[in-house]
Amino acid sequence: MASVSTVILGTGSYAPARILTNAELTKMVDTSDEWIVSRSGIRERHIAAPDEATSDMAVAAARAALADAHLTAADIDLLIVATVTPDMPVPAVSCIIQAKLGLRTNVACFDLNAACSGFVYALDTASAMLTSGRYRRALVIGAEKLSAITDWKDRTTCVLFGDGAGAVVLGVSHEPGVGVIGTQLGAYGDSTDLLCVPKGGSSFPATAESIAAGDHFLKMKGKEVFKIAVRAMEEAARDILEHHHLRADQIELVIPHQANLRIIEAISQYLKVPMERFYVNVDRFGNTSSASIPIALDEARRLGRIKRGDYTLLVAFGAGLTYGSALIRW
Ligand code: UT7
Q1: For the segment 118-173, what is each residue's pLDDT rounded down to a tens digit?
Q2: Are residues 196 and 109 in the same domain?
Q3: Residue 169 and residue 189 in one domain
Q4: Ligand 1: which of 39, 258, 282 to mutate, judged by most atoms within 8 Å of the beta carbon?
Q5: Are 116 and 87 in contact (CB under 8 A)?
Q6: Separation of 156 CA from ligand 1 center, angstroms?
Q7: Per the structure, how many domains does the chain have?
């Protein structure tokens, strides 16, 4: 049987106009630019306007990806949106995005929540659906308005997160050895409490008290998450390379989830891949969860950091706790 693989036909991203600097955060909570930069590497982040929803950012990123692929909305038959901040709990934000983009009605639309690993999970899901032969072209979007679930009085989290969206258009290719050549996904479901929005779901529906207590905001035990993140991302990267008989020095560019510069530096050290081969934009975006990898991928392509024949490794980690890696040959 002829080989069929999923290829990236175009990428796009969107960042809200408003930039929130560390200096501004020092006026909101007891923090300093020095603490934020030294502990996380973050200098500024984009924050969506009050009337700008996740779907609006997703649509902007998707339009850019479609233009990059020289395709239109009519060419898409599958839409997967990775997000933890849909416009509303029900329905799926993918359906809202479908309508805003003017996609056809006979398009499969669904959301996927694997938190910061969401884009890698969605890429794997879309790849499986495309290579099954039942779909031809997919739009995969990672989009987040984390500012909407951030407790702006909690200095341990509010300095870390940002808003934005990234998108890819996927198709299939019969050229051997190119495209999404491997993915690996996993989760540590025994650690859900380390990074969560504790209330507002079916186990604890929102009450006036839970809202007053701020329990519908993101809570994170940062130190514990940090340790597991480094280990899981290193393993996810190592395992996928081994599985495909590749050495780390054959990877031209690693695009890690952008949560913390120190996490990225630790992975670079453990994998023995120099930092020059890691794409980093956490300094300008903070942690945008599902959006972080597709935004970085789009920037890297537009900056000419990815050439035909290159291997790119995506590696992610997030609430769940989920992790995932994907290997792409261009
Ligand atoms: O995207 C999904 C996955 N998420 C992650 O991967 C995030 C993983 N975790 C991290 O990135 C880091 O753990 C943080 C950046 C969140 C925190 O860095 P840390 O080096 O682990 O700091 P810490 O939490 O141990 O806090 C150290 C000190 C504490 O004070 P004491 O207890 O030592 O007196 C905190 O209260 O820093 C204090 N602190 C702050 N000080 C100034 C915490 N937040 C702040 C702040 N400004 N914003």
Answers
A1: 999 999 999 999 999 999 999 999 999 999 999 999 999 999 999 999 999 999 99
A2: no
A3: no
A4: 39
A5: no
A6: 6
A7: 2
